[in-house]
Here is the input.
Amino acid sequence: MKFCPECRSEFQDWAQVCNDCQVPLVDKLPKIKTPAHGKDHDEIVTIASFYHPPEAQLLSAKLKSAGIPSFVADENLVNWVYSYAIGGVRLQVFKSDVSRARKVLGLKGQEAR
Here is the structure.
């Protein structure tokens, strides 16, 4: 897999440039520093999956408005044919933000993956 260092989206190995950010893709994501936390984070976990990207994007925007960094993974791999095959798109947050994110989104009893 290749990744966009800006939006952190995943791409297939043959891709060279992020469709949205127009930056070259990398093989490994760098650690990121967020102003809200002031420290490096390298473990990102999935808190929910959706078969349609807009659902994940709306909840990601809700988390970001609450000051919780979030990422929508696999949205560039999903289309109406492959969405069910790959498990849809994944809403992800830093491991340290899982409980806050669940509270903001009203997710209870779901395990982060």
